[in-house]
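Customer ticket, subject: "Can you confirm the structure for Membrane lipoprotein?"

Message body: Hello, I'm evaluating your service for our small team and ran a test protein. I'd like someone to confirm that this is what the system normally returns, since I don't have a reference to compare against.
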Amino acid sequence: MIAISAGDVVAASLAAAGACLVCSVPLDFLRRFPLWAFRTYGRGALLLPMLAMLVLTVLVRLAIAGQINSDAGLAMVAATAFLGLVLASALLRFYLSDYRKS
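Agent reply: Thanks for trying us out. I re-ran your input and got the following:
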């Protein structure tokens, strides 16, 4: 028998809200953000996407292997959360500083 817990409902609603948020971002915003990030943060802005891809790759490998509850898996989850917060803060800073003015 399949049981749906409250955690499953919360995870599904958060995933749906995230998908709606990503789909509602204007294309002009996404076109102007990389140049602004490079001007604002310098060469360090180029390293963040590569680091994020590396961390996500390791996280997916750990999840597929069933090792997400290990120490390495929890460290990768924390690293992913940190990189997500850095990206979210950069997007918010761009929106509040430059994008709304045009």
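A couple of notes from the result: The chain has one domain: 27-99. DSSP finds four helices and no strands in the chain. Feel free to reply with more questions.
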